[in-house]
Amino acid sequence: MPTVPVKRKPVESADSNHAGALSKALDVLEMVVSSPYPPSAAHITDELKLPRPTTNRILSNLVRLNFLKRDLKQRQLIEGDRLLKLALNVIARATQRGPSHEILRELSGRTQETCNVGAIASGRIRYIDRVEAHWPLSLRLEPGSEVPLHCTAIGKLLLSNLPAPQREKYLKAMHLAHYTDNTITDVDKLAAGLDKIAKQGFSIDNEEHLPGVLGLAVPIPNPQGFPVLGLAMAAPSARISVDELPAHLPLLRQYAERLALCY
């Protein structure tokens, strides 16, 4: 009697299972960071067509590893500190290898001052690219260095451009540390200053973080929404006065437009 062959279902290897799990986790991360508003677990489940237990398992692991975290009020998912640092490190490495660094170097040469690009990360400003001025008096901070939000030109600029609810969260949570006699440590005064910055489109640091150091920042345009990167020039007050800073605005805005094409 002839033997009838039995069809067997292919057995997935451990590697393919792991690849599938990794792909789903990356899909979740991509959805969280690209959504205009923080998504809920239910929204992620529906959008990615995942079984709810799978979504819960992925989210639990990503939160535990600090790639995601939950908004304390709404319990929605937002990017975690580890994911932010990873993203900024990727941008910083790519920036230093690409044309954006040469654009920044050109700007520094034209202004004869230190120029940098920064973004908000974990409640501070992180420099993702920086070119130092070729002067005896210059500021020695490397890409990856972090500075406060409330008393730096880039920090105040990016704070001012946040959606109102997000800006309010920062103002309520931030510790307004005192660095110099010019540091703004009153929340209401800082909020009023941010409103002014948002209207005028630039920010000035009048020796608010470091004595003798001035700063001017403009947003790098972001066609997808509010600016997430800022371009700034920093200079010792021995070389330039705070009243002279705005004269550099046309040049900074021109270079911010060029940098926008690189990010």
Structure, briefly:
By secondary structure, the protein is α+β, with helices and mostly antiparallel strands. The protein has helices at residues 14-34, 41-48, 52-64, 81-97, 99-111, 153-160, 164-173, 187-200, 249-260; strands at 68-70, 77-79, 114-121, 124-131, 146-147, 203-206, 213-219, 230-236. A hairpin with a 6-residue loop joins strand 6 (203-206) and strand 7 (213-219).
Describe this structure in words.
There is one protein chain. By secondary structure, the protein is an alpha+beta fold. The protein has two domains: 14-79, Winged helix-like DNA-binding domain superfamily/Winged helix DNA-binding domain (Arc Repressor Mutant, subunit A, Orthogonal Bundle), CATH 1.10.10; 82-260, Beta-Lactamase (2-Layer Sandwich). 44% of the residues lie in helices and 16% in strands. It has helices at 14-34, 41-48, 52-64, 81-97, 99-111, 153-160, 164-173, 187-200, 249-260, and strands spanning 68-70, 77-79, 114-121, 124-131, 146-147, 203-206, 213-219, 230-236. The strands form two sheets. The chain has a six-stranded antiparallel sheet, with helices on both faces. Strands 1-2 form a two-stranded antiparallel sheet. β1 and β2 (77-79) form a beta hairpin. α1 packs across α3 (52-64) and α2 crosses α3. It is globular, with a radius of gyration of 23 Å. The N and C termini lie far apart (70 Å). 30% of the residues are buried. The model is unreliable at 3-16 (pLDDT under 50).
